[in-house]
User: What shape does this take?
Amino acid sequence: MAELNEALIKDVVAEVLGRLGAGNGGSSGSAAPAPSAEPKKDCKCNGASGDHGVFATANDACDAAQAAFLQLREKGVAARRQVIDIVKTMCDDNSQEWGRIELEESKIGRLDHKIEKLQIIKNVPGVEWLNPYGMSGDNGITLEEYTPFGVIGAITPSTHSIPTLAGNVVNMVAAGNAVVFNAHPSAARCAAMAVREFNKAIERATGIKNLICIIEQPTLDSFAELCANEYIRLLCVTGGPAVVAAAMKTGKRAICAGPGNPPVLVDDTACMDRAASSIITGGAYDNNLLCIGEKEVFVLENTFGKFMSAMERNGAVQLNATQLDALTQAAFTFKDGEGGGCSHAAVNKDFIGKDASVLANAAGVSIPNGTQLLFAETDADHPFVYEEQMMPFIPIVRVKSVEEGIERSKEAEHNYKHTSIIHSHNVNHMTAMARALDTTLFVKNGPCGAGLGLGGEGYLSFSIATPTGEGITNPKTFTRVRRCVMVDNLRIY
Ligand code: NAD
Assistant: This one.
């Protein structure tokens, strides 16, 4: 009996090795080539391809993701739940290490917040959001169900690479999809590392391979190849104006989480300390890398002094005019002729997401250890106001009236329709600003994060679809609504 079992095991091992040697889609019969330790050069699984979801080319990644989508479909909603649980748990368990790895690679932001952004992935909604909509009447019953697209192509930003990837996975897999990522080149290694670890755990738990795929070295060419691939039914783009424009030109449906430049209005009915501490919390978060982060503040003239004092009381450091000028010269480059006759300011990338101490150094001021945010009075047409600067510095602009504050806020927001914030206890002011700016997120009397369920009611997503209108993405965003109709029957009463 023991001999028999041994022979059987040898046969099974030989069969399995034979199949492996046959490569993708190869024959599983006895004519399969002998296994080799070296991958064949012309084989799709050589190099990075097939390394737990990390692929050299977009087309290989899409082939693998399509196969994974079909596997997920077979395994049902239970498997989706398992995947979501794995991704959320791994983000939490690895938050310290992965946060550090992402910061070391991207070199922007703050370690404490890189870690926290992974720990809060648990707040991203999953399959519980996909209850079908049922209708029942004299003519029978009808069910509208939220069904998957198949394979989604997703583009992630440098500002939160693993968190955006993980949040997208939770939403997209909840809806039954597989996904292929083209990450930002400056935060692509950490994204690939997370994809490998997720896929290893997903395969162990569910048997599904390559549910989350990524292109190891993302480029504009791999973006184009991804968008053109026949399996990609939908795009989800999180980034600035260039990638949104590029996605819109592909001819595929694109859910675009685009840029923001959130203005804040503080009126004379607001609690100054609450306003200041909220603005510091939101504007300093990850060194102001959040697309929803407070970027410029307009304050009513009659309360301006009180507000500036409250900012200092709550730990921010004020720059004087000379220091502001030195910081502005360092943080922007100015090109003549690109600003409609005036010189045009472009953000100096060396300062994006850097600590307040780096900015203070450029401004020529020494600040206490642990200072999170700098601020200064500026004009409304200062580059720190109109450029999405992503630095822990907030320009504060004096306005004569609420009407002027709303108008200035609208100009600074550039009609991105992303995020705006008011600190006020006057509902008329709140309503007027909400109507005028028409932003996707409008937060009253709290830091920007309250708009994503962090201190306010609501759920989290790192992709807020602004120009295309889907809003804060959730599992339903990544579904096709299909209607199933039973005529004259199955209504039971
Ligand atoms: P980015 O626009 O430089 O890059 C975003 C992604 O797009 C990257 O993967 C990049 O490689 C790719 N990309 C850039 N230009 C491209 C092009 N022409 N064709 C194809 N792909 C291209 O942005 P970033 O610096 O990584 O992130 C910050 C920007 O993203 C800010 O504007 C911020 O407001 C925005 N953002 C928006 C949201 C949101 O939910 N709305 C979330 C995070 C970041």
User: Anything to note?
Assistant: The pocket of nicotinamide-adenine-dinucleotide is lined by residues 155-159, 183-185, 220, 223, 238-240, 242-243, 246, 257-260, 291, 388, 462-464, 466 (CB under 6 Å). The longest strand covers residues 140-148.
